Request: fold
Amino acid sequence: MSSKLAISYHHVTKRFGSLAAVDDVSLGVAAGEFVAIVGGSGSGKTTLLRLANRLIEADSGTITVEGEDARNVDPVALRRRIGYVFQSGGLFPHLSVADNIGITPKLLGEPVAAVAGRVDELLELVQLDRTSHRERLPEDLSGGERQRVGVARALAARPRIMLMDEPFGALDPLTRDALGDDYRTLHRKLGLTTVMITHDMSEAILLADRIAVMRGGRLLAQGTAAELSSSRDDYVLELLRTPRRQVERLNALLPMGGAA
Ligand SMILES: Nc1ncnc2c1ncn2[C@@H]1O[C@H](COP(=O)(O)OP(=O)(O)OP(=O)(O)O)[C@@H](O)[C@H]1O
Reply:
């Protein structure tokens, strides 16, 4: 069964001193699935994500990636198989867009022409204009463009799995919406498995197949939005109430039949 799972956490715990940042978490992410991790600040979301690519090592429990025990995979090789997108984009400020995107294929020893071709392919994939963006520095990009470059860079080594830590959190709502939709399309088109952290339950509901709710290092609940709505946990229900309230307020305030 585990071979069909892209990532599996089995009773995983990670402590920092006396704090269990991730506390006995078991979670399976199926190949091709889009899972959102939702929870308050300090609930263990980033720690859980980084355990999968061994940026953080677990104290106990087992993590498998595509059926292999992550402990048995060289961490550098593992990180090539798993793309990682940071909230801030995590781009090298002194490198051009093309050099940021091409850095992994270049380090892997791909010929210069192949790297250039891959960069163009990736720019097209994330819908950035090649001629106007290729040579710019990250500081000359908008926040949304920077995140598109971050996604392109994470995809450069052709990973099958993408980990995303609040990738669209710092963007204005319209850009955030557009990037979320575009990424969801990419996820499907490339057959990726995606685990994305978000603070925003609406974003989780709209983008993900399944939602995992973290609190105090524990996995409180997991399931589709519909499944979560029948949870008996007050915190899970409260998280779901926010998007509901927003929809109700928007419906009351916005006249029907406006621009689509
Ligand atoms: N390297 C570390 N050393 C000590 N404590 C840490 C370390 N990394 C995380 N923690 C603690 O572990 C807990 C979980 O942190 P984590 O970053 O996983 O939470 P999070 O849910 O991602 O939070 P946020 O939404 O604010 O990014 C927090 O209390 C944090 O302070």
